[in-house]
Amino acid sequence: MVARSAPPCRAGGRPAPPQCASAGSIASAVVLRLSLAQALLRPLLFYATVGVLLGITIPYILVHISDALKPSAVLGLIGGSYVLALAPPLSAILFAATSGSAMSAWLGGLRLHGQVVALEGLGIPPARYLWSPAWTALAISYLVTVALFAAAMIGGGLLLFDFYRVPGALAKLTSDFVDPPASRVPYLVRAGWLVVSYAFAVASIVVSKGSEPKEKSEEVTSAMTKAVMRATLFVVFMELVTVAVLYRYTGRGG
Amino acid sequence: MRKAATAAGIWGAAGLFAALPIALGSLPRPIDLEINMLSPRPSQVLESTGAPDLPAKVSPRRFARRIESIHFPSERAAGIGLHTRRIVYGERWEKEVTVPSLIGPFISEGTYACSLAARLGAGLFDTAKAGAGLKAALHKKLGEAFPRTVHAEGVSISFPELRETDLTLKLGHGVIDVAISIVLADGTRLQAGFPARLLARDGTPALERAGEVNPAWTGPTKAQAVRAGAQKGAELGGGLGALAGYILGGPAGSSLGGGIGADLGSQMGAGEANRFAEQRAKIELTSQVDAALADLSLGLKALREPLSPDPERPRDSIRLKLATNPTVSPSEITLPLCVAVAVGEPKIDAAVPGPARVLPPAPLAFDTPAGGASAEIIADANGLNQALYFAWQSGLFRKLGRSGLVVNALPEKIRSLAFDVTGFDPGLPPTMTDGSLGSPGVPIVFGDVGLGAWDRRRVAGHGAAMIDLHQNGDSLDFLATLRRVTVSCSEPRPGGIMRFSPCLSDLLPAAREAIEAAPLQQSLPGGAILAMLPREPFKGLGVEWSALRASLRGGPPKLHIQVNARTTPLP
């Protein structure tokens, strides 16, 4: 990965050697790779497992809401709506707690041990070659995570739907995404917007807290905790606000 | 640099937050499935099966190929037709819109449709048993004519009061053999027998003599008439004899001639008086019998009068008339009937001219032999549709469907739906079809049954009820299984457009399964229905009803009601 327009390193006002630009690019690439490994690859199985289990549990609870309706009728009624509604916030909170904590701890550690100062000393702006690739990795990781999480929830739902012999289970579970009626499109729009927002917000919060100056180790853990809390609060707040906006819209138009 | 980055971040965040409402606001009005029809009402009324549908536009056009079109019970048959368009999204969202149509030809109000037949069993005319009331009615009618005095040819015959009347009716092939015997207060007895025919005259049954009345009478009144005649003859004979004797033999001859003449005159007078008495009796009895028959007509003259079932709606009327002459056979009298219904204002919908004629006119026949002293009635689908139309147009169905009794009886879960359930208000008359739908029972199709309001939209249900009626001892078990239930919403739009859209689509598949699996059952005690029948259906004649039996058969639909009857005298 080469930074095409990487500025030359600067140290003490003297022009930096040409190798600084390529060093920054290499650092950026390394940070990106390391961040992706931490934020995405390592917890991937964990996210998938949680997604499958929740994909079974949530509809299983809903099936027993009423004895008056057969389970297959309830499942046919709800389809995959719970995936569309819950995958973004659950995955965002889970991501913030898992990948976000890991990245925040890593960035905080770099700060604590002076590696960021060293980068600055080398004339490599940390914002461009550390925070930026870390942010990008987090955003990409979350987007992949939410897709994987939703797919895992659908997979879990499929197991339950098959257990209750619901015909057309896969089609019903994916109908919100693949073939929604016009009246359900706003829900899909909201979910898409939330995914983008959460990617932006979680990455920003984690990098922001992780990159703060730290002098003690407990400041690292404190930053981790704060990142998770802020990300979580952001998620639940946005859920509420966007639901209100959505229902106001659908109430007017539908 | 830092400030620029911060400003960029703030603008970016603001843009992101604004993106959602902008994105939602820019979406077009969501149309899952919609029909916009040029109509002021949420249904169609088409004059005939060949009439074209009202102009309508189905949306969304891009899914036109996926929209399924379903006609129930058939594409073009008289009666209510339900045209449902359906599209399924993701094998999950069933969006349906149903447009109900009432298709003619129609039996206009006031027009007769020959859709009923009545049958009276021979046992009803057994005046010793179930027909005793007929004898009493005849006695009452004849009693009005006695006592009476008849003057003729200088002779007066005084008939005293009527003491007894005996009547025998025997059904034959095309005739009724009538035998009447009356006994006057002084013991005078008149007996006569004659055949009678039952005809249709101005649509009502008329009982007419088909032969001579040849009475035979004996008793004091007749003896008195003969004596009077003999005396008259003697007076005349004596006068004539005296004149002849005087002419022949002077005063002596007059005296002799007078005596002989009186004897001769008396004998001649008695003979003449006897003949005269027989003749007068025949004339008198014939005229009284004719008057009694005309008045009685088996009590069916009341058919001429219109029936208004609801005292609060006197302008609603049901009229009956005979289609053709009744058929008389040894076991029964069959009366083919025509019915005309008319509903006064206020009507539910004046644009509906009458019930649909689902069957071509055809004579109705009873499938089973007559049962003794019973009255039976059968009605075909046209007749039943007239009854349904009458009940609908007069507001009876609306009144029942919106009554607190019905609304409060709805399950709580139904009343908790996302719209205000106000009851059941049919916008079109339920219609019995002429065929079967593959399920047991007789189908009645209902369309545009208003269930309530949802925002600005009217929620209406459509479907069919398979009706089954079984005898269960003294009760009638009534079973209605709902089939093909659909629900749609409608709202009027500018430009005379009626917009139909899906509603309750999410609940309907599950609810439909539950509704169709649980038929409505009701047991109607026969006694309660019998109590509603009139006790004095015919003038001067009381009737006791018992043993109600009813059945509803399909292929084509026919309702058969049979009830035992016994005529009783009225004070």
C-alpha Rg of chain A (nearest Å): 22 Å
Major sheet size, sense and barrel closure of chain B? 9 strands, antiparallel
Shape of chain A: elongated
Number of H- or I-type helical stretches of chain B: 9
Count the DSSP helices of chain A: 9
Mind telling me the C-alpha Rg of chain B?
38 Å
Overall morphology of chain B? rod-shaped
Backbone structural class of chain A? mainly alpha
Give the end-to-end Cα distance of chain B, rounded to a whole number of Å: 116 Å
Mean pLDDT of chain A, to the nearest integer, reads 88
What is the number of beta strands of chain B? 27
Helix content of chain A: over 70%
Strand content of chain B: 35-45%
Structural class of chain B: alpha+beta
Mean pLDDT of chain B: 82
Oligomer: heterodimer
DSSP strand content of chain A: under 5%
Largest sheet of chain A: 2 strands, antiparallel
Measured between the Cα atoms of the first and last residue of chain A, the distance is 49 Å
> What is the spatial order of strands in the main beta sheet of chain A?
1-2
Please give the share of residues in helix of chain B. Answer: 25-40%
